[in-house]
Structure prediction request, 136 residues.
Amino acid sequence: MKFNKLIPELSVSNFEKSLKFYIEIIGFKIEYKRDESKFAMISFQGSQIMIEEVNNNWSTGKLKYPFGRGINLQIEVDKMQSILDNLKINNYPIFVEPKVNWYRQDNQLLGNKEFLVKDPDGYLLRFAEDLGTKPL
Prediction:
């Protein structure tokens, strides 16, 4: 396995609950885990994150729901429909329903179909399906 240059590590309140969300509902796979540390390295279509139950090793302050305030993690996916289907089957709430957005980059627009969901600790995940580019 090749490690990405940037891999966010999320402190989670309940390791098993978070692992179930990421693996069974979203579709990440476990690259490796350390049960004794309540830690896992997980991946999904080229994106990588680490989750670890809160242990105060990296704490900069008291964690309070929703964790990760001020950040959303954009995760590019080939197709988002299977994730949406799994969220619905598991009666898991979507934070922002799927919509198409076009973002300016210099003299072109980059298209994404995207939706947002909060993980069990409130980390905001933005799943984006690439729609290509178009001129301004």
Observations:
- The beta strands are 9-12, 29-34, 39-44, 47-53, 72-77, 96-105, 108-118, 124-135.
- The first strand starts at residue 9 and ends at 12.
- Residues 15-26 form the longest helix (12 residues).
- The chain has two helices and eight strands.
